[in-house]
Specification:
About 75% of the residues lie in helices and about 0% in strands. It is mostly helical. The protein has one domain. The chain has a two-stranded antiparallel sheet. The longest helix is centred in the first third of the chain and has 32 residues. It is globular. The N and C termini lie far apart (about 45 Å). One of its GO terms (molecular function) is oxidoreductase activity, acting on diphenols and related substances as donors, oxygen as acceptor. It comes from Granulicella sibirica.
């Protein structure tokens, strides 16, 4: 049952990253792919109807994590306190920039909110990427299950770990490029005209950069935590994830070269699913590794809720998931196809 709940928590996180990740990418790129107010309206319309609904999966991830692994959530939230507040502020500013920017009549204010939108999404990608790097590498957890670390370090390879150090910054850069490529592929799929053409050009360049950075970050992950490689090689789910990455990479290449937009977009989603699946399976059962001493690490079996709590959660979680997924599918089908600014804009811009 504990393994099943680990997979469920991972599933919620994967859904959020795949869905909101395309909004991050579109936000980071919208100042580059859209050069007129009408074109920017087109970009906002591509994400406007669903951006807030994607955050439901982030809330669901937090709720599921609290229900299944409460001790992990208590330890992680206290250690990542500053980073979590920054993420919260960025989410707020992203939402405000979309909502308020659409009501600004002065062009200067519109440009300000455009910049806030791009900056907030960029910082979100950096923070989530750095958080992923910290989970893969580990944090200085003590015998009490607590940890604290500096926000910045001296960035030396053998220096002290921090929320932002040489490794986590590397992972953050990779996350930014990956989500930007994902967003460009989504905009190519959803838009038309000059925005579509520029998005297609950025998608090809960014995915090429992803393929360059992926082996570098993988090697760095092996350097900072060699045991992960052995765990990955012995975990069948990791091999499934690698297969998904390989097949989606081939489909992505085919879709981008032949301008088969739907193929490229679907492959982009599965590429991210494969990456996250490999990362999550490689560290199991340790959910938060201690760089001080391995015995201080927080494993899924040590931080899970009691059996009765997991049984109760097994009843309400499928119901909540089915309702959320059903409504999301219903709304997504309504906004399927290319963007119609008059239909999809909804007053955002």
């Amino acid at each position: 049952m504990i393994t099943a709940w680990y997979i469920i928590v991972g599933l919620m996180l994967i859904i959020y990253v795949v869905l909101d990740g395309r909004n991050f990418g579109a936000g980071m790129l919208h100042l580059f792919v859209a050069r007129t107010p009408q074109e920017r309206r087109q970009v906002i319309a591509a994400i406007g109807p669903l951006w807030s609904w994607h955050e439901v999966w982030l809330v669901g991830f937090g709720g599921t994590l609290m229900a299944a692994f409460p001790r992990l959530m208590a330890s992680a939230f206290s250690g990542y306190y500053l980073a979590l507040f920054l993420i919260l502020f960025c989410l707020v500013f992203r939402g405000v920039s979309i909502e308020v920017g659409g009501h600004a009549e002065d062009r200067l204010w519109q440009q300000l909110w455009d910049f806030v939108f791009s900056a907030a999404t960029l910082l979100l990608a950096v923070l989530f990427g750095a958080a992923a790097g910290n989970v893969e590498r580990g944090v200085p957890i003590n015998a009490n299950g607590d940890f604290s670390m500096a926000f910045f370090t001296n960035f030396r390879v053998r220096g002290n770990v921090g929320l932002l150090d040489w490794y986590t910054v590397s992972v953050a850069i990779f996350a930014v490029v990956l989500l930007a490529a994902h967003g460009a592929t989504y905009l190519e799929f959803k838009t038309s005209g000059p925005v579509h053409d520029r998005s297609a050009s950025y998608a090809r360049q960014l995915w090429l950069l992803v393929l360059v950075l992926l082996p570098i970050v993988s090697f760095e992950s092996w350097v900072v935590r060699p045991a992960v490689l052995h765990s990955a090689l012995t975990n069948p789910l990791c091999w499934v994830g690698v297969l998904v990455i390989g097949l989606s990479g081939l489909a992505l290449t085919f879709g981008l070269r032949t301008h088969f937009e739907a193929c490229a977009f679907v492959a982009s989603n599965f590429f991210i699913v494969g990456l996250l699946a490999v990362g999550g399976a490689a560290i199991f059962p340790v959910m938060l590794y201690s760089t001080l001493a391995p015995q201080y690490s927080l494993s899924a079996y040590a931080v899970c809720a009691n059996h009765n709590a997991l049984l109760i959660a097994s009843v309400w979680w499928p119901i909540g998931f089915a309702l959320a997924a059903g409504y999301f599918i219903f709304v997504s089908r309504h906004y399927a196809g290319k963007v119609d600014v008059n239909r999809d804009n909804q007053g955002f811009y």
